[in-house]
Each structure stands twice: as structure tokens, then as C-alpha cells.
Amino acid sequence: MLKLSNYKRLWAVLIVGVIALILNFGLQQALWAQIVVTILGSLIALLMLVDMVKTLRSGKFGVDLLAITAVVATLAIGEYWAA
After folding, report:
1. How far apart are CA 44 and CA 50, in angstroms?
2. Contact 41, 75 (CB under 8 A)
3. Any idea of the CA torsion for 46, 55, 63, 20, to the nearest 10 degrees?
4. Under 8 Å CB-to-CB from 46, ≥6 apart: which residues?
5. Which of 11, 37, 39, 81 suits 73 as a labelling partner, its CA being 20 to 30 A distant?
6. pTM score
7. Comparing C-alpha atoms, which of 56, 23, 47 is closest to residue 37?
8. Considering just the CA atoms, what is the radius of gyration of the chain in Å?
9. Under a CB-based contact definition with an 8 Å cutoff, are residues 43 and 9 in contact?
């Protein structure tokens, strides 16, 4: 699986956020904005899950599980801006 650095993930989130803002508020295409954010949020959650499993295998613990749970929960209930 493609491993992205945190820097690249940040830029991906910012770019998709700007695209979603333009779609939602500029072009009045809320459905397309939700689709774009949901796809990226799911991808980031999957990448975080893979990183979390690697971290847990090394014996270290963090708040990654909470972050993944929050992203997945907000996507599941349709609050894509919160994701």
C-alpha cells in the first residue's frame, strides 16, 4: 500500500478541503463535495489503520485508535465536514 508522509497527507487534506468548499459553496454541488470528502476521509482512515497496526506491533501505543474511530464515525453519519 502507498505510504504517505504526514506532510503529504496534510496537503492532500487541505487540497481536497478547498475543492469541497468550492463544490459546496461556490458551485452549489453539496453531493459532490460530500463524495470527495468521504473518499479522502476513508483513504486517510485506512492509511491510519495500517500505521496504527504497525505501531501496536512494535509495542507502542497512541491515540491513533481514537482518531480513526472519530473519522469513521463522522463519515458514517454523514458529517463529512467534521471528518
Report:
1. 10
2. yes
3. -30
4. none
5. 11
6. 0.59
7. 23
8. 14
9. no
